[in-house]
Specification:
Length: 568
């Protein structure tokens, strides 16, 4: 993002197409023959300056234009224009920013009513757009009171020899830009304001600053221009100061943010999990900005709908609560205030992944409870691939340690085996405790060891009742389920890990094999809300194999549940 903070002038009009009026203008850039189909357009054979000079009820606007050199500049340019004026009874003398206010009423584009449509954006001399709004009656050709330039309703339209004059009900009020709006937020919004502003800053722009002298120390003194640079937003081509931007921003107050964090902490505590506040706040920042203008009925819905922010975060419009009755219009976008913010489950749980070898950390009672085995004899927990890191010092070392069960000699292949496994997590002191899984949708993956060539079905049980099961999956010679190489899934690495980047900087060709989710057992596993209050539950993974097929052992590596976009 590179934005010069001083005002600038651009000659742009966007969205100009034949539209609402019954007037027909064959060439709004040059001399025209206008067909009049109503009595709402007046044609005069004088210049715009001469016409305004000749009307006593426009004398205040006339004096304002004269004092700011508008007519002289029009003469120098020698091109057609559009001028917006008010009668004396609606004139408000600018208390400050006189030049800015005056130039907000003049455009280098000569545009007729026939070429205005709802949503047209007309670039004015003050370097910002005026938005054209046309209601349903205006779209049928009735101009007066049904076409607005920002806040000013059209009262008269005059076609002169040098362009168009629109007499409007109020002087143009130019909304601030998105950046200025954020910069001026009061302390009720300080958390969000400071997050945005801290992601960028002002830099001195020597190229656009004029040298005005030398100080006593011999240093050049400049009439300084500063640039607001923000690589965080630049990376997604989003310039909050650019008038060509058409954005939507969702604004959370400090109270809304704190309520959302409190709710997230309560959920995490009930799930026996933790998540950094910095990650949650980062999501809030990234979810606030959109590169298109959304209407009220798009930003708040009753049916499930997801929007993607400029940073590709997921915003579910029937879950989040937004004040759509009082939008805030900006010169380059629109702002809706968030009234209730929900931090999604799939943010609070990036992925749930752990290992079967925690068997060795269980007490005998826990082994009997969490690893109920039929036709299996525990053999060992062993590291088959030593701990490694594709980028030591940046990413932690990761080992491939498995649990091995052997086939009892007295059973037949056709007897198969079954393991009822309750996922457990490792405590800091080396003990274990069972996982609690929030209700919702997850992608289910596992890892075993290559070349086992066994047909496996995994059933998910809650309180002994089957919830769902996988199809029969062959754990074969493929590397798909080999440890946690995860050769077929996308979005399968630890949070923040970029395999392509790591491979590039480390030269490690195995970078993509590092600590993945594993092989897919089920695209979407839905854990039901058993109690109806969102409470988490323990689950059992029943691993069933109907036939040993001549194999003598099975080696299990890990399991992984990754929340899907539907786990919101």
């Amino acid at each position: 993002m590179k934005t010069i903070i001083k005002p600038f002038i651009a000659l742009v009009v966007m969205g100009v197409t034949v539209s609402c009026s019954e007037l027909k203008d064959d060439n709004h850039y040059g001399k025209t023959d206008t067909e009049i189909a109503n009595n709402e357009l007046k044609i005069v054979d004088v210049t715009s300056e001469e016409y305004i000079n000749g009307r006593s009820d426009l004398s205040n606007m006339n004096e304002l234009f004269k004092s700011q050199g508008i007519y002289d500049e029009l003469d120098q340019k020698g091109q057609l224009s559009t001028m917006l004026v008010v009668t004396n009874d609606h004139f408000k003398k600018p208390e400050d920013k006189t030049e800015f206010v005056t130039r907000s009423h003049v455009s280098d584009i000569s545009i007729s009513p026939a070429n205005l449509e709802d949503g047209t954006r007309l670039m004015m001399w003050h370097g910002k757009y005026v938005n054209v709004t046309i209601d349903s009656i205006g779209k049928n050709g009735v101009i007066v009171d049904h076409i607005l330039f920002n806040n000013g309703a059209v009262k008269e339209v005059i076609k002169t020899s040098t362009g168009y004059i629109y007499v409007i009900s109020d002087m143009i009020e130019t909304p601030t830009s998105l950046y200025d709006f954020i910069n001026e937020l009061d302390d009720d919004y300080s958390i969000f304001r400071d997050m945005v502003l801290a992601s960028g800053g002002k830099e001195f722009d020597r190229a656009n600053s004029k040298a005005v002298g030398i100080n006593e120390q011999g240093n050049t003194v400049y009439d300084s221009v500063f640039i607001y640079r923000n690589t965080f937003f630049e990376a997604v081509n989003f310039d909050m100061n650019s008038e060509s931007l058409t954005a939507t921003m969702l604004l959370p107050s400090n109270a809304v943010i704190q309520d959302a964090l409190n709710d997230a902490h309560q959920r995490l505590q009930s799930w026996d999990m933790v998540r950094s506040d910095s990650i949650m706040k980062d999501w809030i920042l990234k979810s606030a900005f959109y590169s298109k203008r959304y209407a009220a009925n798009q930003i708040q819905t009753t049916e499930l709908q997801d929007l993607k922010s400029i940073f590709s975060t997921q915003w579910r419009t029937n879950v989040q609560k937004v004040n759509t009755a009082e939008p805030i219009e900006l010169s380059n976008g629109i702002v809706y205030k968030i009234t209730k913010l929900h931090l999604p489950n799939n943010l609070l749980m990036y992925r749930l992944k752990d290992y079967f070898y925690y068997y060795e950390n269980c007490t005998d009672e826990q082994k009997a409870t969490y690893f109920k085995a039929a036709n299996l004899n525990f053999k060992e927990c062993a590291t088959e691939v030593a701990a490694w890191s594709p980028l030591p010092g940046v990413w932690p070392y990761h080992e491939n340690r498995i649990i091995r069960f052997d086939k009892p000699s007295e059973i037949a292949d056709a007897d198969g085996f079954q393991l009822d496994f309750t996922p457990v997590k490792l405590n800091a002191d080396g003990t274990v405790r069972p996982y609690l899984f929030p209700p919702g949708a997850y992608r289910f993956a596992m890892g075993s060891v290559q070349n086992q060539s066994l047909d496996i079905v995994v059933m998910i049980l809650i309180d002994g009742q089957e919830v769902t099961r996988t199809r029969t999956i062959r754990w074969s010679t493929s590397t798909e389920f080999h440890y946690d190489r995860g050769t077929t899934l996308s979005n399968t690495h630890p949070e923040g890990y970029d395999a392509s980047y790591v491979r590039e900087v480390s030269g490690n060709s195995k970078a993509a094999n590092y600590d993945t989710d594993g092989g897919q057992m089920m695209e979407e596993l839905v854990i039901p809300d058993v109690k109806g209050d969102g409470s988490p539950v323990q689950i059992t993974m029943r691993i069933n194999c109907g036939n040993w097929e001549g194999k003598t052992n099975v080696k299990l590596h890990h399991w992984c549940l990754r929340p899907t976009t539907n786990n919101y």
